Amino acid sequence: MEMLTAYTEALEQVLSPSPVDLRERVRTHYEGIVVGRENQFVLFGTGELGRVTLRGLRALNIEPLAFCDNNPQLHGKEVQGVAVLSPDEAVHRFRESAIFVPTVFTSDPLRKQMESLGLRILSVPELFWQYPDAFLPFASLGLPEEILDHKEGVQRGLALWHDEASLREYLAQIAWRTTLDSQVLPGHLAQKEIYFPTDLLDLSPDESFVDCGAFDGDSLRAFLTRAKTLKCFIGIEPDSRNRANLQARIEALPSPLRERCSTLPYAVSDRTGVLHFDETGTAGSTLTKEGHLEIPTERLDVMLDGLAPTFIKMDIEGAEKMALEGGRNVIAKHLPVLAICLYHRPSDLWEIPALIRDIAPEYRLFLRRYCDDCWEQVCYAIPPARLKV
Questions:
Q1: Which fold is adopted by the domain 38-119?
Q2: Three-state SS at 146
Q3: 38-119 shares its CATH topology with 191-386
Q4: pTM score, whole prediction
């Protein structure tokens, strides 16, 4: 209780400034970086975040000077009409005239590389805050209002966590999301540990593993690396290209393990129906009103009827709350371990844990992060009997 009281008081301090003051502080920092180089950007990283940044800048009628990338196979080519330069060439051409933006999710190693090259650096969150109409909300990035307008929910969310590591991360996340001060964040855990935290539970060879957002089977591979085998696997993946890769991975498994694995083509939701879907063949495929495909949606309570799942993972690009609502009965009945991503919407950080606790109060909740800033955060809901002693 004493520990929670200390974190509660610290959270009250974090939530005390006005959003106007918080945004002004970041705006002043931004102007100090870009002075003399306004709208002169080089985007370092051509992946998903780089393309999102390019799209937003073009909506503002700002054309980046170039992409920069460490992958030599991209040098001399173009990505969406923008030239891709090597770091050496980008430094030679633009070090004295441009702002370099590290457009990768795990940006700390890249930032250190850029600092060693003497570049003037602006983070993606700092850029996105300056042009919210073009960029925000993006995943769990939002303006301070996204936090401060929901102060009571944020405060209630603090008390849901079971250990001090979770309390520390939750407080740090609220502090970072209202200031963009990276100094408030503890270090993140290794990416390879995501979804299956060895410090919290042991996996069993008798697991019935349900993978919502199974992508190409990367989580199945990680599971089998730890548990070696399982009772059954259901990979739910609506993207047809991802599902084909998932099926190929399953086909490569030895028998009889292969026969215990299956796939489903649905988007997990809170209702049976049809929704629009943006199919990209990547981990970023998502439900969206602008999606070019119509795909079937289904509830976990329907898909898992007759199955007693022991482990459910969800990384479904912002549809996690709908999926949990659609699985209320099966979750409350069987109390599977849950590994639920929290970084797709700003309010997921406090609303998803509260929803899980509403579905099944028995769970112990833990918060862990496997990437820089606000990315790759997972809520683990573990029944007491499964907790590692």
A1: Rossmann fold (3.40.50)
A2: helix
A3: yes
A4: 0.93
